[in-house]
Amino acid sequence: MNIMVTGGAGYIGSVVTEDLVGQGYRVFAVDNLIRGNCAAVVPEAVFYQVDISDQNALENIFQSHRVEAVLHLAADTSVEESVAEPTRFFWNNVAGGINLLEAMLKHRVNKLVFSSTAAVYGQPDKLPVTESSPAKPINAYGESKLMFERVLSRYGDNFGMSSVSLRFFNVAGASQRFGADHHPESNLIPLIVKAALGQQDPLPVFGTDYETMDGTGIRDYIHVLDIAQALTLSLDYLQKNSGVKVYNLGNGGGYSVLQVIETARRVTGAEIPIQICPRRPGDPAKLIANSNVAKREIGWQPRYPELESIIESAWRWQKEHPQGYNNR
Ligand code: UD1
Fold this sequence. Notes:
By secondary structure, the chain is of the alpha/beta class. It has a domain at 2-171 and 223-250 and 291-302: NAD(P)-binding Rossmann-like Domain (Rossmann fold), CATH 3.40.50.720. It contains 10 helices and 13 strands. It has helices at 11-22, 55-64, 79-84, 86-106, 140-159, 188-196, 224-240, 257-268, 292-298, 307-320; strands spanning 2-6, 26-31, 46-49, 69-72, 111-117, 162-168, 170-172, 203-206, 218-219, 221-223, 244-249, 255-256, 274-277. The strands form 4 sheets. A 7-stranded parallel β-sheet has the order 3-2-1-4-5-6-11, with helices on both faces. Uridine-diphosphate-N-acetylglucosamine binds at residues 77-79, 117-119, 139, 141-142, 168, 170, 186-188, 191, 203-206, 217, 219, 257, 280, 283-284, 287. Residues 77-79, 117-119, 139, 141-142, 168, 170, 186-188, 191, 203-206, 217, 219, 257, 280, 283-284, 287 line the site of uridine-diphosphate-N-acetylglucosamine.
């Protein structure tokens, strides 16, 4: 099966491309390389340096290969940046996505798996969050992803575009070959393993006055390999089913920032010095997923639910790639 992966040189894109190629899919990885790394694309995939806002370039790919489905992962993802620069998030995450959909429709590609986010929920009143919990984003990142989910719903009704939107909770960890290498890095676990290697010192803890057991933010961390599994299962699902679906993907357990740091100290044996800082704008206090619907409907079963194994894999990757992909 021929699959286009947008954001194919990004963190999740590189891992899922590796996974798909390993299962015999033919992958066309599309990335503008503003945040992605071409070194993160397995050589068995066909790589295109293309921005999703470039409809002609996308159409050329659809014209040259019989693409059967798209995994749409290309996006701006930093919550902090989205608070400062909302417009860029709406352009890239909403308008860019519509551009992709138009190119797909012209070439009769009607299956899309979309990487959405827990940030669509904002600060939920009840935990764990189900797909029917109210979607009330508190930052432009979450807003932009929710807007695109709604676009997908309309494209389903009007144009027969079938889609699965996966609302990822906090993705972390690494495969054997590929891990997180963002510039700048803003996610907790990559920063922690850098701190453990002495590359990020001290680690800021954003807010100790949340209504949580130790005052720090609580998140549901999920292994990037379990995300790759869900993306592949969603493709299988769309082979057999049509319509528009939305699923949460998390482990159903929450860890505070201080608990993650404590676990990382155990896993790495490093001290990991911290510095207490004010809250980071746009951050909710707690997010924990109920992912029963994904388990039931697409057969998703996380293989690496323990926080230790997520941190261990990130730690191993950081030690093996202290300068990331080292191409900057
Ligand atoms: C956010 C999004 C998530 C998205 C991810 C991608 C929300 C609710 N979630 O995750 O959907 O996929 O960004 O970038 O918007 N923290 C520190 N010190 C640090 C870094 C983080 O204390 O140096 C804290 C944060 O305040 C937060 C937790 O660690 O409580 C996790 O932060 P992070 O890893 O950045 O992910 P989110 O912002 O939760």
